[in-house]
Task: inverse folding
């Protein structure tokens, strides 16, 4: 087996890179909204792995 | 904070700073690098004046964080040459009409690589993928501060 990346996969990876670039270009308030959602979704998972620190909670802000 | 002389200068760093340039990554606090007026006079830098100032404005201080409108903010005294450089070269961005000083992407990557660790490397990679990083400037920065990491050519 060679180490080359098939054309189809290379296209997929290029599209993925482009998607990340578009995410990065979103308006800041939109990124803050996503961050708040990430905090809400991840916190229960984190709590199952280890004790949460007192300040680890979703921010009480409106983006 | 700066106008009242509590800090000489400051810049937002860490994952919150990354938010200004790249896609969001999880964080629960805001890191603020600060140059303190007392720095240089003593080996130990006290954050007590910063905490006193925050409490005088009605903000709660909880261990190492100041709670600002529901967001835990950690003030980190500039601890090495790279951080001092990052504060001096920070960019001014606006959030909800308020100007804020934010560490630039090249310094954020250098700081992440200097700190090391999986999450920091991921942060550096996220920033590199945005296409906004000045790679020659980043390489020069890494060289000056003795951070030996190969930065790939832009893709």
Result:
């Amino acid at each position: 087996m060679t180490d080359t990346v098939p054309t189809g996969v290379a296209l997929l990876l290029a599209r993925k890179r482009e998607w990340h670039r578009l995410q990065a270009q979103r308006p800041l308030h939109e990124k803050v909204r996503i961050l708040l959602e990430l905090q809400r979704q991840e916190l229960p998972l984190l709590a199952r792995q280890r004790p949460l620190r007192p300040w680890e909670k979703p921010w009480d802000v409106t983006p | 904070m700066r106008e009242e002389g509590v800090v000489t200068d400051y810049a937002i760093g860490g994952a919150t700073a990354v938010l200004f340039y790249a896609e969001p990554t999880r964080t629960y606090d805001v890191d603020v690098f600060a140059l303190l007026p007392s720095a240089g006079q003593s080996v130990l830098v006290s954050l007590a004046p910063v905490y006193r100032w925050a409490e005088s404005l009605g903000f709660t201080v909880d261990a190492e964080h100041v709670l600002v409108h529901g967001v835990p903010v950690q003030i980190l005294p500039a601890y090495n040459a790279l951080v001092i450089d990052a504060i001096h070269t920070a960019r001014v961005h606006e959030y909800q009409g308020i100007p804020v000083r934010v560490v630039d992407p090249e310094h954020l990557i250098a700081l992440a690589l200097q700190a090391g660790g999986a999450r920091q490397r991921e942060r550096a990679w996220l920033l590199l993928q945005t296409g906004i990083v000045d790679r020659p400037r980043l390489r020069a920065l890494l060289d000056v501060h003795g951070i030996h990491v190969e930065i790939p050519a832009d893709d």
The CA atoms of residues 13 and 19 of chain A lie 10 Å apart.
